[in-house]
Amino acid sequence: MHEPHKCHRLQLCDLFPPGHAIQHLMWQDHRQIKMLSHVDASNLYSRWVTYFNVAKRVCEVAVWALQADRRGPDDGRGASARGEGTSCTELGINLTLRLGLLDLADWQDEEKLRDGKAYRLKLPWDTELLWYPHFMSETEADELEDLRITMTYFFQTPSGVTQETVNRKGQARICSEQHAQNKAHSAKDNSRDKSQLYVSEKMDSWSRALMHRVEHASESVFNAIWFNHYRDGTVTIHWHSDGNEGLGPDPIIASLSLGATRDFAFKSKREWRGLRKANDGSMFHSNNIIHITLPLFHGSLCVMGKNSQRHWLHAVPAMEGIHRERTNLTFRFWALEGFETIDAAEAQADTQRQFRLRLTPSQRLAQRRARPVILDAPRDAKTTVEEMLRRLENLLPPGLGEVGMVGMAGGWWG
Ligand SMILES: O=C(O)CCC(=O)C(=O)O
Ligand SMILES: [Fe+2]
After folding, report:
1. Matching InterPro entries, A to Z (predicted)?
2. Per residue in 352-361, pLDDT tens?
């Protein structure tokens, strides 16, 4: 293993009976192996996790004891698109507060995956996919596709050749300032092959606005957008999960599709034992790998939520008869690109970045389909969490009640 989180994420050590002395063998570099005790490896692991939580700077805030929201199901467009909710500009928050609703669907409800509605799709191993088949209107998606085509992004081929033109299969990135700095740092370090670093653009107003909108729908925060360009149906992405250590312990990745409708194939890494519904409605015992396919329409958003990289693989398989190109924008949170060790990462940690707040519905509300909301906290350094929560309470829409802090990742220094 290169990093302790690789095995700690899988909790392999828990499989051993107590009383065993466990040693971890880790690559020091590509020639040497070092040995670590289980305690030391656990400590390193918790430093990684803390590093990610601090880097994201998200405070979890629960909203509880509330009545159900009166608004209709969320289509992922967010409140500003609908002009609803309570404006929090007084707090310097540029997002409208809104407790939206998202219908639940079980992965076996095949017809729901094709009915054109948005769902929180529940899968085995406590996995979630958020599916917005019409995240963007046709016109908006057309405009974004046009914008993408006219932008002079450098698309890099998998072989590392960078071309200004869109080629057979291209990738490009847009990322935050900090992310770019880390990447530059990595290039300077010469710790990686420079040809493997993708060309990246800085965030600007349209990409930031789009990212915020996707964050809202994804219930998560991001700092980078990656583009994948598929010239036609012969261009594919094979089975993989996005589990690179730069993405943190359980990354959430949102994927916005433009252009040709291609299938998104999702399959479990292991067999699932349970009762399944047959086509004729009868039930049978299954002990198989689960396969799920979603049609990635022009303007659709598929969010690979919690546990989706841990327990599942995804792919965009080849499709005959597709001559139209497709561009996919994946939204990710990168905190570690360019760092070889946690010491180096911690030394470069950005403590100045703005806090985000995730207002999480209480369990009772969540059962009623209420969903979390992401807010930017005010930049005012004097505001403490308690004060922020008190002010938020006053701004919550009528009937929403109290807010309270459930757990805080990363702290809030006022
Ligand atoms: O094109 C897609 O929808 C998927 C892309 C993907 O899986 C990736 O970039 O890791
Ligand atoms: Fe992927």
Report:
1. AlkB-like (IPR027450), AlkB-like_sf (IPR037151), ALKBH3 (IPR032854), Oxoglu/Fe-dep_dioxygenase_dom (IPR005123)
2. 566 777 777 7
